[in-house]
Structure formats: C-alpha cells, structure tokens
Amino acid sequence: MSLVIGLDTGGTYTDAALLDSAKGRVLATGKALTTHEDLSIGLGGAIARVLDAYATGVGQPYSAGGGKPGDIGLVSLSTTLATNAVVEGVGGRIGLVMIGFDEAVLERADLSRALGQDPVAFINGGHSPDGGAQTMLDRDALRDMAATFGDEVSAFAIAGHFATRNPEHEIAARDLLRELTGLPITCSHELSSALGGPRRALTAVLNARLINLLERLIEATEAIMTERGLTCPLMVVKGDGSLLHSDFARKRPVETVLSGPAASLSGAAFLAGTDTALIADIGGTTTDIAFLQNGAPRLRAEGALVGGWQTMVEAAEIRTCGLGGDSEVQAITRRRQGGVTIGPRRAVPLALLATQHPAIIATMEEQLQLVVPMQTDARFVFSLMPDGVPSWLTRSETRLAQKAIQMGPTPIAEVAATQLALGAVDRLISRGLLGLAAFTPTDAAHVTGAFTGFEVRAAELGAELIARQKTGLGEALACDGRTLAAMTLATLHQQSGLALMDAALAHDGAGEKQASRTPLLATLYEQYVKRIMKSHDTDTKNAWTADTEAETDMMVATHVAGTVAGNTARLVRIGMQLETSLVALGASAATHYPHIARMMGVAVSVPEHADVAGAVGAAVGSIRQRVMICITAPTDGRFRVHLPDGPIDLSVQEAALEQARKAARQLAHDRARSAGARAIDVAISEDVRIVQITPKKQLFIEAFVHATASGQPS
User: Fold this and answer.
1) Please, what CATH class does the domain formed by 623-713 belong to?
2) Domain boundaries, the chain
3) For residue range 599-614, what is the model confidence (pLDDT) as tens digits?
4) Is the pTM of this model over 0.90?
C-alpha cells in the first residue's frame, strides 16, 4: 500500500489521518489535545490512534488488521502553531541587523510594531539597485551587536539594502554572527527574491522568532516516529500547500506560516469533492478563510497576510482572523452598553483546564462570593518554561516567572497585584513563557449545551463571573451566566459572518475588510445578536435552542429605521449574500457554522472528517519550489544577472537571459531536491520588459526569469 500519515498540530488539538494515497481514501483518523509544554505527548497520542487502528483494523474500510509501522511510506506535518504565533504576537526575543538602512525604515511595513522591544542595530553597508556596494560592511558594529545582545536573544535576523540584488553583506554578517554567537541566523534574501527592504526585514524577523518553535515541533515529531518504529521521511507543509523535507523547513520556518490553513484547503477539496467553494476553517485560535477555485487556492502575489502583517512568504490567498473556539473572551466595561470582545489571543478554556486541574473550580467559587467583581476573575496563568526561566527577562518578569513555575495554574490576581505586574504577565504570555486560561467560546458552548466534552461546571462559573462585570453605567454585563454565554456565541457568529464577507469582497477586488470597516455593513448582523439576547431575556432555560430554530428565516439584511406615528418603520433594507457555496472545517465547525450559515442565508457543508481536514490535506500534498532571477541593465550594452551568490555582467541580452534560465532551473531543481522531491520537473517562464524607442531600436529595462520545480516526496 502507498500509506501516508498526515498530521496537523493546532493550538488545541493535534490531528492524524492515515491515507491510502493510491486509492485516495481515508483509512483511519485520530485526535489528541495539543500539549504545548511537551508537544510530543499530543503528537504521540494522535499517531498512536491511527497506528493502532491500522494494526487492529478497527474502524477501517478493510476487515483484516495486522498492519505494521514499516508499511508507512511518509509522514507529513502541517501546523497552525506558526500562524498562531504571528497572530498572537508570540515568539522568541530576537536581534535585528539592518545593513545600509537608516532608522526611518522602522516606520515602514509596520516593522517597528513587529519588532516591539527587541534590539535592532543599524550598521553601514548594503548595496545599490544595480548590486554595487554603497559602502563597506561595518564588521566592528556587528561584533558590538553580538557582544551586547548575544546572551539576550534566541536568534538574529539580517536585512541588507538591496540584498536581493547582491547578498554579499548579508552573507558576511550571517557568517560573522554565527561564529561569534552560535545562534540561528535568518537572512532576508534567503526568504524572498523580491524588492522591498522593510517587508523583507519583517519576514526575516518573523522567521527568526519562529525557529525555536518549529524546531521543537519537528524534534517532537521525529522522537515519536522513532518511538513508534516509523522510519520513513518527515515532510512539513508550506503556506502554499506544498511540502518541504523537515531538515529544509528547520531553516525556513516562516514558510510554514499558513501551513495549517493551506493543508485544510487541500483536505477540503479531497473531502468535500468540490473544486469551487468558500472554505472556512475554524480552529482553536483562528479562523482561516480562502476561496477554492478549480481545485486549487489562488496564490497571494503580495505574500502571506497573517494577523495584519504583510509578509513576503509565498502562500495561498488565505485570510486569517483571530476568531476561534479558544479565543480569549473579555468583558467590555468602559462603554455605556456592555458586550464582549473575542480574540485575537488564545486561552485554554476553563472547562478544559479543570479536567486536569479541578482545583480551579473551588477558586472560581470563592471569587463568586466576593462582593466586588474583579477583571482578573476566571483568569489563570501557568508556566510554559520546561527549561527554566530565560536569563534575558527583567527582574520583575523573572520573579513572576519563578512564581508561576512554583505554583502551577494560578489566578492572575495572586501572581500580579498591580497594573505594573499585570503588564509583566502580559509580556510573559506574549513571549510564550506563560500560558493563559480564561473564558472562551468553547466554554460558552458548554454552558449552552452545544458542546459538553470537558468540565461543564468550570465553564458555568466562568460565565457567571464575567456576567457580573459592570458596564460604564454600573450595570451587570448580563443577567446570568447562560445569557453571557449566548452573548459570546452570538458575537462569535456575527464576527465570523463579517470575516466571511470581508474575504469574499476582497476576492472580488473590493479591498481588505470592506464589510467590517464600513459602518453600514458592519452592523449587518447586529439584528442577529439582538434577537439572541432578546430571546434570553424572555426564556433563559431554552433560549439558545429555540433561537437556533428561529434563525431559519435567514437574517440576511439589516434595516435603517425611522419612527412613524410612534411606531418603528423599516425604511431601507440592505443585504449581502454569498454567491458561492460554503464549506466549513474544524473541530467546532459543526457547532458554529450551521448558525452562521443560517444567519447569512447560505447553505453550508461540513464534510465527513472535517475535524481532521488539515491532517488529510497534509497527506495528499506534493513538493513545489519557485525561484526568480532578475536581470537589470546598469549601463547601455551591459546586462547584470543577479545570482544568489552575487551579480555577473554580460554584454549580450540573450546570453544574460540564458544564464538566468540556467541558474533559475538549477536553483529550483536543487531546492526541490533539498525539500525532498524525486522525479523533479522544472518549468520556466519569463517576463522581459522592453521599451520600443524607435521602429529599429529597443531599450531593455529589466527581466525576470521564474522557475518552478515540482515532484513527489521521495
């Protein structure tokens, strides 16, 4: 058999699917909770489930068991961890080296916000547009950077001025910093051959932050494979849905941004049997939306857009928003009319935490007895530092981190008693050193009865604690926990509907966030939320169930109302409706998307195995590598070919094009082979830009030679 195990490690669950790739069928699936403190536990649980099913034949489409791990030809891993880390702003502390740029560059491409408090050095060097050095590389400044910050960061990112035209200074800086510090180094020219220094720098920053995260994931997967007797290669899914060998992925983790969503798209096409649909994949941390057309997603020309960051990572055109089953829910307390916000930060659901730490139930019961509600009620932190406290934390952060390690899951109020300490806790959470547990939509589903897989009592207490938070008028946010839970789910559904419309309008060329940023359209589904809450005012016991039936009248319009003779008159009906089918994926898709689809007036399909679509998609992927070689003309009659090792000059245009074709073909082939491909095929395309000066004379501007190498995993 041609057997492949697909894995998908998400923020909440790790999924596995065993496929017979020759017959195109799913043989077995398995799920386990993602264990962030030790990823191998969750991975081991998911892999064990499909291997045990294969060995025993239980639940498989053939009667005989007896399958062995040696029969597995490939393991393929997709993950949302990199995407989640970018969306949540989580990652290691890194150092950025900007070669040949001035400090004003930080205000471009949102680079300053991405960098945060991490150190940056601006040093002399870099190149001009034609690839010539604009000044010598300042090696002494690099040595100072290494001496000052080498012990305080986990990796370095390097971006050089016009490094895609000549990477000489980036390479020299990389080699020197690696020699001085031994830390992982990311060069911007290795991630993209496109112009745009600030965005290349941003992409390099994200890559450097993600190196340790992906290394942990790959090491954990390889350890479980060895333990289970799997001797086959390990592949990792890229953001465009293609595969990389794990060794190659270690150096370029940013390419796995949108890995999970891209795998889900492939899985959706496989499972739903459709090649044209709007795909919504709701996970624990994010909802990923893309349009599948003719069986494949469209690639985003500008690079992956993740959590508001415009990167240069080649990826499918997927829009990711911070809405998931495990998104943090917070009370809105500074407005006259209360409500809740959802995401973008992920939190461990209280119902889930209580299954492992039931003592939090007693803690929340004590909080409920206090006369004055606190904003820190029903919020806990716990350590994610298996190797101890990092040395680069501040003194106050170190004290908090040590306390969290000693105490286990702890109410935030016991760890941080002041606003200053609360800020330190937030920083530790954003660094991925502390985990957060709080009320989430998953908890809300437990309260309403839509899903009850964990500890219901913990969810109910969390809802009651948030419900008694005060609005700006001093009134309780909700009359009881069940109403608060309904408010949470209604808000999730409303925001999900707007996110779907944002994605659909963007695909139609209207621009980003046209629905959610337009006041008239942003209120489109407010009637839905108000209707849910009104039903709870009259019948809190069965309101959620009753109102889901009432949704069938399709809330596809909102109204601008006027008052006529004391009565509310509906004067204008404004509507938006999807003109394509909707396929919903994810573990909670069946819980939420029937309501969302009814609210929007569109049919939805939740296919079999939708809860493991990412794992299925990972198993059906192939390897694809793309490269681009640029040719410029610095002077008349001279054609400069910008190669990965530096530019070369030729005097004949066709000779320059042939050199670029040869280099692009070889580079794409070598990258595909390094990515783990066999039987590699390379396709070449060209974009030669020429201006006709006179009928007999042409002016060469520039040329781009693209090579795409593809093949199956070896």
Assistant:
1) alpha beta
2) 485-603, 623-713
3) 888 889 898 888 898 8
4) no
